[in-house]
Amino acid sequence: MFPTSPTNPSVSMPHFGVYIIGDEILSGKRQDAHLSSAIAMLKARGLSLAWAHYLGDIPAQITSALKISIATSDIVFSFGGIGATPDDFTRECAAAAFGVSIERHTDAVAEIEAQFGEGAYPKRVLMADFPQGAALIPNPVNRVAGFSIQQHYFMPGFPSMAHPMMEWVLDKHYSHLFHQIPVIEQSIIVQDGIESQLIDLMHEVLNKYPKIKVFSLPKLKPNRQVELGAKGDSRIVEQAMVDLKAGVTQVGFSWIENS
């Protein structure tokens, strides 16, 4: 079950996920710019990223991953692999995962022709081949559209194109989800803290407040300390932090607010 909005209980909050596809990312030839941007775009709208996966240009791997996310109600953004070169497999993998054929999308063809004229043929037009039943995601840079099917949104690997396309999807289809749950993150610094001695406390707080996440980030240098905190619905996090602070004191550690 997804959490519901405290301001509108009829609104169910789905999970958002990201696939980042391409051997060039995994080999280090290019640095990924999608993950941090996706997090920022969601955060600006009061949303958060639930998961992210990096995938190579391996058709079986891409298809298998898509089948898993298709079986959920997650909203998924996929970056990369929708070009026309032989190492671009995402469109075929999406079709296989959804169990449909590839067909040439008339509106996508029109966009490519409008941008490139006769230069659309014979190769650029291949980027208008989408899984059957797909809808277009407009590309504001060169009009070579991405596509969507069943809450999965497929965009190119170029950040300058993909990121405004993701923003368009969010603003057009999911504005009703924006800022529905006031999510915050709070933490304290446990001075000279030992993480293993805080585990029982963390479990106690999680059992009491199962709808939030509790985290710890130890640091050894220059001084040993543990950042201990909670994130989630603001009202629950504030209550959980009271318990965490009291528990840390009871264990015998001192703490300060994390500025």
Written account of the structure:
The chain is an alpha/beta fold and 259 residues long. The chain folds into 2 domains: 16-177, Molybdenum Cofactor Biosythetic Enzyme, Chain A, CATH 3.40.980.10; 183-257, Alpha-Beta Plaits (2-Layer Sandwich), CATH 3.30.70. Helices cover 34% and strands 24% of the residues. The chain contains 8 helices and 12 strands. A 6-stranded mixed β-sheet has the order 2-1-3-8-7-6, sandwiched between helices. The protein has a 4-stranded antiparallel β-sheet with strand order 10-11-9-12, with helices on one face. The chain has a two-stranded antiparallel sheet with strand order 4-5. The radius of gyration is 22 Å and the shape is elongated.
**Helix-residue proportion:** 25-40%
- What's the CATH first level of the largest domain? Alpha Beta
Please report the total strand number as a whole number: 12
CATH superfamily of the largest domain: MoaB/Mog-like domain
Could you give the order of the helices and strands? EHHEHEHEHEEEEHEHEEHE
Poorly predicted runs of 5 or more residues: 4-10
Adjacency order of strands in the biggest sheet: 2-1-3-8-7-6
Cα end-to-end separation: 34 Å
Derived from helix and strand composition plus strand pairing, the structural class reads alpha/beta
Q: What average pLDDT do the residues reach?
A: 94
CATH architecture level-2 label of the largest domain: 3-Layer(aba) Sandwich
Number of domain units: 2
Envelope shape = elongated
Could you tell me the strand content as a percent range?
15-25%
CATH topology of the largest domain: Molybdenum Cofactor Biosythetic Enzyme, Chain A
Largest sheet: 6 strands, mixed
